[in-house]
From TrEMBL:
Binding site for L-glutamine: 51, 229, 231, 258, 261, 299, 301-302
Assembly and oligomerization: Composed of two chains; the small (or glutamine) chain promotes the hydrolysis of glutamine to ammonia, which is used by the large (or ammonia) chain to synthesize carbamoyl phosphate. Tetramer of heterodimers (alpha,beta)4.
CDD domains per record: GATase1_CPSase
Function: Small subunit of the glutamine-dependent carbamoyl phosphate synthetase (CPSase). CPSase catalyzes the formation of carbamoyl phosphate from the ammonia moiety of glutamine, carbonate, and phosphate donated by ATP, constituting the first step of 2 biosynthetic pathways, one leading to arginine and/or urea and the other to pyrimidine nucleotides. The small subunit (glutamine amidotransferase) binds and cleaves glutamine to supply the large subunit with the substrate ammonia.
Superkingdom of origin: Bacteria
Similarity comment: family membership: Belongs to the CarA family.
Keywords for the protein's UniProt record, in alphabetical order: Amino-acid biosynthesis, Arginine biosynthesis, ATP-binding, Glutamine amidotransferase, Ligase, Nucleotide-binding, Pyrimidine biosynthesis
Gene: carA
Record-linked InterPro entries: Anth_synth/Amidotransfase (IPR050472), CarbamoylP_synth_ssu (IPR006274), CarbamoylP_synth_ssu_N (IPR002474), CarbP_synth_ssu_N_sf (IPR036480), Class_I_gatase-like (IPR029062), CPSase_GATase1 (IPR035686), GATASE (IPR017926)
Protein name in UniProt: Carbamoyl phosphate synthase small chain
Amino acid sequence: MTNYTKLPAILLLADGTVYYGKAAGKIGTTTGEICFNTGMTGYQEIFTDPSYFGQIMVTTNAHIGNYGIHKEEIESDSIKIAGLVCKNYSVGYSRKEASESIQDYFQDENIVGISDIDTRSLVRHIRNKGAMNGIISSEITDLEELKAKLAAVPSMDGLELSSQVSTKEAYFYGNPDATYKVAALDLGIKKNILRNFEARDMYVQVFPAKTTFEEMNKWNADGYFISNGPGDPSAMPYAIETVKQILAADKPLFGICLGHQLLAEANGIGTMKMFNGHRGLNHPVKNIIKNHCEVTSQNHGFGVIAEEVKKSDKVEITHLNLNDQSIEGIRVKGKKAFSVQYHPESSPGPHDSRYLFDDFIDMIKNDLAW
Ligand SMILES: NC(=O)CC[C@H](N)C(=O)O
């Protein structure tokens, strides 16, 4: 294990709040939108989730790093969070299957973090003040210099980020002899979505974010999938257009998170930046169609505008958030298309919502329109 000495570090928020802690990971400076995840496990899956690209993650579990790093517990090939803020940064770990420490992992991947922060106070602060940008530094001590750097960081509102995390080339995933073919638009796709498709007899071709429907359609897939991903859905006219064309061609479509927001946009329903996003593993959601409650894994900072969904004659609400009544799922009337705001692939998280992958196959197999 690399030597690790606790050097001082600073976290400065856009509203001027300052927290002093210890350097974690690489010595350096990083910026991004600060957000928190209330999940009690799954830190490595969170670090590698491409939807967090451009965001500094505050973890609320008191211990981060304590079960080490496992090379298979990833949602993409590299760490995507812009930085980490945690309470206890555990460089020593106690799991036989782990291959390295969080410190080695962060150093290899150039991730700057800060530990020994009172994350309970920080989370309450963000929860009361709303989403904002932040800067972490273990090399700059001058607050004015940090403020100047932070002022130059763009707001997440209006930011297109998917094209920065999407695959550069199309690739295949799963068994070529599988029964169904799914064309997935990669806007920052999580690996566990692909694993869920593979486990259900689907062969997937994953396409770069800016691939047109015409291009994807050449493969003649049985169904289309619009993935999760970072950034503001309303800043993605290219993807909204692709979704519109999939719908116009009457193809089966399933969307998760960003994919859900884009399905709404493609039906003339607006999206908005939330005061605070939903990020955690225990968000209660009601399935209105099946009349049951699911405990869901969530990660989003934008949402579809509820009033516009309710007024729409094109879509129907299928899922509602039981904490704040926000829209968690829709389906398009007369079409084979549905989407959810939360994460049925739930990595990490409870497996209550995995049935949605089965619903997708069912929709393809039985040619179901709603
Ligand atoms: N996980 C996601 O797909 C997130 C979608 C979008 N970037 C948001 O923050 O709301």
